Amino acid sequence: MANASQFDPELAISHKFPDTTYSYTERDAALYALGVGVCLSDAVDTDELKYVYNENGQEFIKVLPTFATLLIRISGASSFNLPGLEYDPRLLLHGQQYIELYKPFPSSCQIHNKVSLAGLHDKGKAAILEIETKSYEKDSGDLLCMNRTTVFLRGAGGFSKSSKPFSYTNYPSSQTSAVKIPESIPFSVFEDRTQPSQAYSLPEAEVSWEENLGGHGFLVVRLFRSVLAVWVWYVSVLEALLYRLSGDYNPLHSDPIIAKVAGLVLYPPILHGLCTLGFAVRAIIKCICRGDQDLIKSIAGRFLLHVYPGETLVTEMWLEGLRVIYRTKVKERKRTVLSGFVDLRGLTSSL
């Protein structure tokens, strides 16, 4: 538990985090792309080769929008230190991630980060800490993206100075990752955007099956301006080891002994939550954005359960205006591991 005599939440709100810097190269961007499954089953995927190779004469490779999560270098508990707040780093859980994207990432760049406290909440036996990082291109001063990271610190609560639990938030509620996920089974649309009170059965919808050169298939159901798509990924057993090379060296994702101490039932190392987020957003880029990663405006994800490398990820997507609501499940265990939304700048003409 946090020591109430040492930790004053009111003072924590005014705490000034030091600015940080981070540099990356085209190699880092390509390694990250491989770590979230790019070209995993098809080395010449026509939609994704651009993230790892200068195809068709392009001067620089393209960078995935979820690469934004690397710019803040969340690798270890030191990023979440507040004066007087005591917690066991082994009990830290990554709960949510919110990202705003302001311009496409260059293939290599020097980054200047400005860090601030976005939220702090006393949950009794635990604390919720939210850190906001704005990443600027160092040379031009242009704002590239904003990350808001929410972590759950088990054993760090109990610091409230009154009977009312302490709670502080400095951002709008519309930026939270909590969304209402449709309870209908995939491939059916029960509520249309323009006629919310009317239900439609599958025969009244336009249904098509699409697949890429590697044989990955997905069913697309179109009803007026609503789209439901399902994409299935197989996660390589080496995925966690590959993803960690992008900078997240938490042994929970590589050391089976640490995984056992952390209380995992099967205790093999688990996949990074941000890696799972990368898989989900790739599915949205493929199915909804038709391969145009620059259509992504913002990303919100809530991490609900761990993923074991080697499991199959099924991402379901519902299009509501310019917002994609998604849910990612593990096929083998039939459990939801990630949910959230992605806001788009626009839609492709094919939709």
UniProtKB/TrEMBL annotation:
Q: Name one Pfam family in it.
A: MaoC_dehydratas
Q: Show the PANTHER family listed in the entry.
A: PEROXISOMAL MULTIFUNCTIONAL ENZYME TYPE 2, PEROXISOMAL MULTIFUNCTIONAL ENZYME TYPE 2-RELATED
Instruction: List this protein's GO terms for biological process.
Output: fatty acid beta-oxidation
Q: Which GO terms describe its cellular component?
A: peroxisome
Q: Which InterPro entries match?
A: HotDog_dom_sf (IPR029069), MaoC-like_dom (IPR002539), MFE-2_N (IPR054357)
**Span of domain Peroxisomal multifunctional enzyme type 2-like N-terminal:** 22-155
Q: Name one GO molecular function term.
A: (3S)-3-hydroxyacyl-CoA dehydrogenase (NAD+) activity
Q: Which domain of life is it from?
A: Eukaryota
Q: What is this protein called?
A: MaoC-like domain-containing protein
Which residues are in the MaoC-like domain? 239-336
